[in-house]
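Example complex used in Figure S2.
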Amino acid sequence: MTNQSQSAQAPIMDALLRYREAGRASFHVPGHKNGQLYRQEEIARLLQDVMSIDVTEISGMDDLHHPEDMILEAQKLAADCFGAEESFFLVGGSTAGNLALILTVCSQPGDILLVQRNVHKSVLHGLMLAGARAVFLEPYIDPISQLASAPVDSTIRSALAAYPEAKGVLITVPNYYGMGLDITAIAEICHEAGVPLLVDEAHGAHYGLHPQLPASALASGADGVVQSTHKMLSAMTMGAMLHIQGEWIDRELLRQRLAMLQSSSPSYPIMASLDLARRYVHIHREQAFREGMEAIRVFREGWAGLTRFRLLGPAEVNNTPPIPQLGEASKAEVQESESILDSNPGYSTQDPFKVVICDRYGVWSGYELQERLEQQGCIPEMSTERYVVLLFSLASVKEDAVRLLQALEYLEKESTILLSADVLCEGLHKDNHEVSTWNNLRALNYSQPVQFHLQPPKKDQVETVSLELCDGRVAAEMVIPYPPGIPLLYPGETIQADIVERLMKLQSTGAKCQGVADPSMRTIRVYRDRITSTDA
Amino acid sequence: MTNQSQSAQAPIMDALLRYREAGRASFHVPGHKNGQLYRQEEIARLLQDVMSIDVTEISGMDDLHHPEDMILEAQKLAADCFGAEESFFLVGGSTAGNLALILTVCSQPGDILLVQRNVHKSVLHGLMLAGARAVFLEPYIDPISQLASAPVDSTIRSALAAYPEAKGVLITVPNYYGMGLDITAIAEICHEAGVPLLVDEAHGAHYGLHPQLPASALASGADGVVQSTHKMLSAMTMGAMLHIQGEWIDRELLRQRLAMLQSSSPSYPIMASLDLARRYVHIHREQAFREGMEAIRVFREGWAGLTRFRLLGPAEVNNTPPIPQLGEASKAEVQESESILDSNPGYSTQDPFKVVICDRYGVWSGYELQERLEQQGCIPEMSTERYVVLLFSLASVKEDAVRLLQALEYLEKESTILLSADVLCEGLHKDNHEVSTWNNLRALNYSQPVQFHLQPPKKDQVETVSLELCDGRVAAEMVIPYPPGIPLLYPGETIQADIVERLMKLQSTGAKCQGVADPSMRTIRVYRDRITSTDA
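Predicted assembly (1072 residues):
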């Protein structure tokens, strides 16, 4: 443990300030020469200060890929602050961390990784780069919101029993909506099976730092953890961290992977911002969240007076009858599922900073609600067909909460004029038939291994068909609605009816998709000859 | 071609300024909330302005991985400015561009790429990720400086004839020292052979933009070009561009590769800085370099009065007798080599902004000279055993030149006291025996294909030996002295006597090495059982 005076240090920013104050002449990159070029350019004014510390690996500035000095020191302070044995600063976002972790754990082609189905696309890209095989684990689906959290203990236990040769398990906790679960038992199951637990904790960099926040993945026993420090703490965008503990992960190989995937000219301002983000929570500890938590309290207090909107939270399970959609599940599975609902082990934690709301009547889609909030000066994080995600953080203040409440009150008042009985009825109907992407409760809660690789299908193997005609075909491209960046389909996967419906909905609501050849989403690329095979 | 008013636009920065001025409440990442967290933190003051525009893919902010709006517009302006058909903004530096290009051109494992030996490590990492086979092309070695530039036409022609199945040719022009050659003929040879020419032009983002600068790779016919806009132009560190022209490169696949390798939360300040860097040269054109060129002129004028140091340049070939070190080369090769020296086709261009100097007497190593310059307040870009690289740019001013001249004059004056006849003699001796890393003129000017892959050697296949004992062994790790980041050895390569000598020199002079298990460089990891094999 560091003492108070150590934790107050900011080794990287300190070195940058010393560099700046020394006022020496730059005969090194970057070419803007500490912003000297723009000294009379008003349009670059906001970059002037940051450019004065935008340096490179000159003498005394250490080297991210081989840290020995202030970067090593800053990483050690981060390890202490977040409870890791070793922490690595990332300048390529959690993307770089996920890619590097997977390329480390799956070092041989064909290695099996147990991966929850609803992962960020960077995890799938990691599988592709590694040439690994993924066994997809079905996540727990919250019966009220129809949103997927993560796989429960029993899913992981049974998949590990079926694939004892697996190299590890990778889960995403919390998800983009702030939904999560206690992963202590999962870590134990992994360690009993002799594999590391990797956690994409991109959305939970703040976890474990305040009593009202869920426990961190590291404290719960995870071996490799990726955190987007820029998301829920205060680093600049692309600033993230990779934390390691224990002996399950080959750190030498990990270093090589990070040096391979990240820029050989990493951004010092981003590294300094990681250092400052750590410093802020390290010195203020719980108090760092005082103002943000107060903003949340004010918001929740005001929320009680609103009737039009619904707020996502695990507590709802106890207030509303569950709507299980079990398809062809056996009676035993129905019982198991019901017992899961009783204790709700798949969705037991909610990030208080993630305010996820929807129109109770389903009249406004998430996209429409987002647009209306923006008209009121409140910019949400993202929206889906149903939900809008609004993100508070330790930097939020009471005034933010008041502003959001005023916007919601305005919308609620405006909407009462429009809500005729017919519309309401239609809305409720729509709401009940909402189809979740991940609502795939199947006979087995894990998939067969799916081989990932980098090779795109050859031109003559593939054709383009309109969305209406793709039912039952095998996808030849990845379809990633963004946000939240979770692939709905990836190459080699059979397109089932519910997916077709989902795709058409996304297309008609104008959602953005990455990875597709046709950005308008009217068509999709499928394998020409393969109707049912699932291996790519 | 765009008109003056279009080129003066800065679509990304404009959008960020509008975002800032709108003063709406942030319910989105990043968690610092436009820097709101740090409003009273003096230590973060220099990040305050940039954090006010450090946003994410909220409404109206487009998406780097799927640009449709201002990012697309900014990229189109960049394509116009730099002479590409299509330009891609990179937030992960030229590293991301090189990885993506190689993964696009070598889309099947085992695909052959012709690669010059002295490439940046990101190129080798690209080969590893792609599982490609590299045919290494010997670069032209400047006989005076012993520095490697790039392969000459005849090397590329003969290698393409030997490997007609190759997928492309990748060269690095200019190199870190600003050395280059006219690549027009190389582009023609590639196109005749039906393959694209890829150019790592990381050090030449400014090429072609002023009559005193060499032509750009795009203007010379290259198909895919990576430029570090942060190095020789004025973007923030990690800001780079990938330019494409013609039909040789599969752009759809390239987009997928870029989305795979770069952060899904790219930095807007970095993208804005790319936009501004393009805007600056787009509106000022030649005049953008007026002040920097004037600084260089002043420096060269003052340089004429110095006697202790030597300046790198292709003109030296005509002033000094060449020192060919041809080993076992045949008579025909000696003649060919001599005719090369006559016209000096392998090193015909020098970036005027790269001032590369050495101690004429070899008393001070490059490292020592760098240290002395730093004591005089001049911070060089990097140094090697022999050279110091000092980098001017369009942002340099006359005062920089004067400061550097004063520093050199001081060192020259100081050194006359120290230079006894003995020392001088020793120094000259040392200078003459300088061994270049790449001084491998062999019977063939290209290698056998070397298979790259991601799999690290298994523990029992490898042992650690001290540097003194590694002669003739097969390397099991990559050794990359940094800067300039060119691998001296990679896994599977036999360690020859000259390499051993070089390694020991690097170790004794305290150079930094990436990729090695022992950062002190006293030991090296080699294959246990394989003494001469070169396939990994």
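The longest strand of chain A covers residues 354-359. Chain A touches chain B through 128 residues (CB under 8 Å).
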